[in-house]
Design goal:
Layout lengths: L16 H14 L16 H6 L16 E9 L6 E10 L2 E11 L9 H13 L8 E5 L11 H9 L3 E5 L6 E2 L11 E5 L11 E6 L14 E7 L3 H10 L8 H18 L1
Helix pairs in contact: 1-4, 3-4
The protein binds two DNA strands through strand 1 and helix 3.
Length: about 270
DNA sequence: GCGACAG
DNA sequence: ATCTTGTCGC
């Protein structure tokens, strides 16, 4: 795993709530919500678009400079005593799985909206210890800058390790969509702006609601994802990458596979 | 007091 | 997140 760049900011579940919140403000101040990475993000394009394009799929994936992208997700063993978290990581390159690892740890604190990183951050860092490859980018299940103090779990882990990170949430923690989110077409995005409840100037674009998939017809519609910068990635690029990494499903592949692995690994672990 | 609230 | 049967829709 990458070295710890900010030892003092490693999530500590024994901190008081006030300490956690002030640490988050510190993290937000250290975070970079702009593109600061070395790989070529333009080469990450939606597999479905690539397939429909004129050139063969192989053409978009040749040399060995493709970035390693890791998806991170958790499952929980809530029946055990104490409750435990299973953190799973799937590292991919060029649409291929390079490595899958997981770690199980006891949970220290309950889920509190806004303090997720203090519940799941430890388990995640432990799982990273088992990785042999060094990802160029991490995708987390949860928010990044779309957070009361602009320091969601993707930002927290990103800053602690000083690695490019993006938050991909399935529901909106805070902020206001700049427009309606009903029945958006695939590829569409809507800015999520800071409001009075967010520690940022009102109207600041914190991230985007991103529609990766949509039903062709019908009454129901698929909800968008809420994508925001974690660290060293700007909001537009974060949205581009989330969309580009989604294949046949709503979730970007690295996260979808991490989600599945977290579930299957839990079965193995119990047995 | 009331409402909102990632996973 | 997790616990779970049926059920609506293509």
């Amino acid at each position: 795993m990458p070295s710890i760049s900010q030892p003092d900011l490693v999530p500590d579940a024994s901190s008081t709530r006030a300490e956690m919140e002030s640490q988050q403000r510190e993290i937000a101040a250290l975070a970079t919500f702009e593109d600061r990475f070395s790989f070529d993000a333009r080469r990450i394009t939606n597999p479905l678009e690539a397939a429909s394009a004129d050139k063969p799929l192989e053409a978009a994936s040749t040399d060995g400079t493709q970035p390693i992208i890791a998806g991170v997700d958790q499952s929980f063993l809530l029946e055990s005593e104490p409750e435990r978290a299973l953190s799973a990581i799937v590292a991919m390159r060029d649409g291929e799985v390079l490595e899958r690892v997981y770690a199980v740890t006891p949970l220290e604190i309950p889920y509190i909206p806004g303090l997720l990183a203090f519940r799941e951050g430890g388990p995640i860092l432990k799982a990273m210890t088992n990785l042999s490859v060094e990802p160029d980018l991490y995708l987390f299940d949860g928010s990044g800058r779309i957070h009361y103090r602009q320091a969601g779990i993707a930002t927290h882990i990103g800053v602690v390790l000083d690695v490019p990170a993006i938050g991909v949430a399935k529901s909106l923690l805070c902020g206001d969509p700049a427009d309606s989110l009903e029945g958006l077409a695939p590829g569409t995005r809507v800015p999520i702006e800071a409001n009075a409840r967010v520690d940022a100037p009102e109207g600041t674009v914190l991230g985007y609601a991103v529609q990766t998939r949509q039903y062709e017809s019908g009454t129901r519609s698929i909800n968008p994802l809420y994508v925001s910068p974690g660290h060293r990635v700007g909001p537009e690029t974060a949205a581009d990458l989330a969309f580009g990494l989604a294949a046949e499903y709503k979730l970007p592949e690295p996260i979808r596979l991490a989600d599945r692995y977290a579930t299957t690994a839990k079965r193995e672990y119990r047995a």
